Amino acid sequence: MKAIVDVGKCSGHARCVAVAPHVFVLNSDGYNERAINPVPAGHEVEGRRGARACPERAIRIVEDGEEAEAGR
Amino acid sequence: MSGGCPSRPDIAPDMVRRWDLARETEAVGCPFVAASKLHDGPDIFFNLSDDLRNVDGGSWIVTRADLQREVLQKSELFSSRGISGFSAILGESWPLMPVELDAPDHMRYRKLINPLFSPRRMDEIEAGVRESAIELIEAVRHRGGCEFMTAYARELPVNVFLRLMGLPLAEVDTFRKWEDEMMHSDDVAVRAGAAHALKAYLLDIIGRRRAEPTDDLISHLVTATLDDRPLDDDAVLGLCFFLYIAGLDTVAATLSFIFATLAEQPDLQNRLRSTPAEIPEAVEELIRAFGTVVTSRYLTEDTVFHGVAMRKGDRVITPLGVASRDPAEYEDANTLNIDRLSTRNISFGAGPHRCIGSHLARREITLTLEEWLARIPEFRLAPNGKPVPNVVTVWGHDTLQLEW
């Protein structure tokens, strides 16, 4: 499973890291720098919750077998 | 309803309303319940009422959470220039920084102060904030009750501002007085007088920190550089003024709804008192339910936004408390439910201007609940203790009489 972060859309709510500290990483400004991909085994539920927590809707989850169309 | 807007014949009459939030709030006792009724109507309408600082004969009001998010994210179309009108109080015209700046200047200044408000930085200052909170709570603990807004909700944020700025805590009464006069006085001369006094005070400190920097926020600003040049006094002043104004009423207002709710819901209050580990998640639902800020933008060009033709210069208001109660976003939106699966919200705004103090506000609210519930027994509203909230600017209770 992958978490695709649109870092251009991130505005630093930092809810992703509050909910999913094993999946997302903040930079020194407190904005999402990247997701740890693939999402570490055992943290898939956490990753989905972290993505859902984003007020900007800047995070997309790509399940195994799905194609990542864009982003990184 | 009305027969349209005479000055704007381009707007279809069924898009024009006269939504008077103060009157609606008076009728139902709660601005959020009043606001939620907007979701029975159009997603966007043109409002003719005088409230919501609606001065130019009408403004667009965007009701739906997803549309508000889009307005706030599309900052090139929806400009922040002049949204606060604050410096006009002083008869001046500098922007509050960075809240009234647009791209690209906005992000340049924002990046200067982002690290000072990051979650990591908040970890470092939390102990000091908690100390202020405990001191205020201990002062009322054995009194059997208090007027919560004066004793705590307005006091804590001023303490926090002084700590952030590196100003002496002994100045708290002076800064509270200035805040009260600037933000709440009906008298223009009183507002301007307080703003000038604060400006003079800050300019003096800015000068002293330039001469002898310490590790506080003002020192950080006076030693920072933008394009290899130090910030001038106007820029530092604009940033300091904004941080002062932005963090006081908003936190106090949010706490006023939270404490009124806890006073009225002893089961919730006692659940959080007995399981404090649930407080941080509960705070997210409380913030979801109580978006107290009404912000706005100005159109930079003629546009059609979700089928609505808007003109360059039109004001677009996004009352975040209306998004708080959007049934398309939240099941049973008017019910507070700390077990809600998703509390994702835009109570701190969205897009590039997302409230820079959001992480600080969360800490203030969370540690307030932790320390208050650990020290004060079950509390309730005093008889007639909860007046109808004030919705002139930030939505909140002016007073809240609690007893225990």
TrEMBL record, chain B:
Alphabetized CDD domains for the sequence: P450cam-like
Record InterPro entries: Cyt_P450, Cyt_P450_B, Cyt_P450_CS, Cyt_P450_sf
Per the record, the domain of life is Bacteria
Q: Could you confirm whether the keyword RNA-binding appears in this record? A: no
- Enzyme Commission number(s) from the entry: 1.14.15.1
Q: Which UniProt keywords apply?
A: Heme, Iron, Metal-binding, Monooxygenase, Oxidoreductase
Against PROSITE patterns, the record matches this protein to: CYTOCHROME_P450
- Report whether Hydrolase shows up as a keyword of the record: no
The UniProt family comment states: Belongs to the cytochrome P450 family.
Name of the protein in question: Cytochrome P450
